[in-house]
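Researcher: Can you fold this with NAP in place?
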Amino acid sequence: MDSTKPLKRVAMVTGANRGLGLSVVRLLCKRFDGDVYLTSRNEERGKEAVKELQKEGLDPKFHQLDTTSMESIDRIKKHFLEHYGGIDVLVDNAGIAYKVKSTVPFGEQATNTIANNFYGRYNVYRTLFPIVKPHGRIVEVGGRSGARILNAINPDLAARFRSPEITEEKLVELVNEFVRDAKEGKHLERGWDTTAYSFVKTCILLLTWIYARHLKDDPREDILINVCCPNACQTDMTGWIGRKTADEGAEIMLYLALLPPNAETPQGQLLLDDKEQVEWRDKDNYTVIGPPLY
Ligand SMILES: NC(=O)c1ccc[n+]([C@@H]2O[C@H](COP(=O)([O-])OP(=O)(O)OC[C@H]3O[C@@H](n4cnc5c(N)ncnc54)[C@H](OP(=O)(O)O)[C@@H]3O)[C@@H](O)[C@H]2O)c1
């Protein structure tokens, strides 16, 4: 890296070869002042997606990233440090979901969903968080179901999630308890919910909140970290039955990714697609319960 040149700004999106991730890259290419990285666990699928955007006159860059591989996460970290001195915008979007009708045993669903959607995210977070630059924006793609779960699980478990003293370590304990109970087929008896996917969304809310708390004592200026729910969107994940197109759903991700310098808020919040903030930590004030979106 040439230390005499001003560093170019850079944005990256995980799981961006299709769906909402691809839409965020498309919109960032149009609106972000800097390089935009489309990342994908599969190099061929990622490069195909880059070509698709090039046909639209856009110019994303590509880097391989499998969020379940520490080696892959470390490689991308090195790349951004070497070429940009860090990251300006991180959109943490990659995820999997079993279909509601899936016949895969719940213990297996829970293990795989936690490995991909929780530990994948968490490892991206804790590895890349230290290289987010001042004025950086971190966007977690979550879901309102994450908040709903807190009112559905056993109140003692919910209280552990809502505790102001919760730490990353205590959250990991809860996650591992859930997987253990799911594998033993005792998750309902022990007060958990019936879905691993939404449970992870709860954990992502918590991670966002915990990291926002870390930022209070962080010397880097003006970093904002938030989680959003894009509403139900037409992607492979929903079987294309969502209310919004992926580009429409991606708007809330863009809003958080491009919050202006020194905006101060939102910080550590869950925002719905219409920018409503969900007071998920306060059981009595929490009203956005509703049925699952799809
Ligand atoms: N669609 C909705 O209505 C909706 C609503 C709320 C929240 N969300 C959340 O939004 C995110 C994107 O959803 P989507 O609807 O766009 O899903 P999607 O169409 O199924 O796309 C998921 C993307 O994540 C990638 N991915 C999965 N595991 C990965 C890993 N370990 N490393 C790197 N990439 C990985 C997939 O890559 P491959 O192509 O290689 O499989 C794919 O590119 C998810 O986190 C989802 O939970 C979606």
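Model: Folded with NAP in place. The pocket of NAP is lined by residues 14-15, 17-21, 41-42, 45, 65-68, 93-96, 116, 120, 141, 143, 229-230, 232-233, 235-238, 242 (CB under 6 Å).
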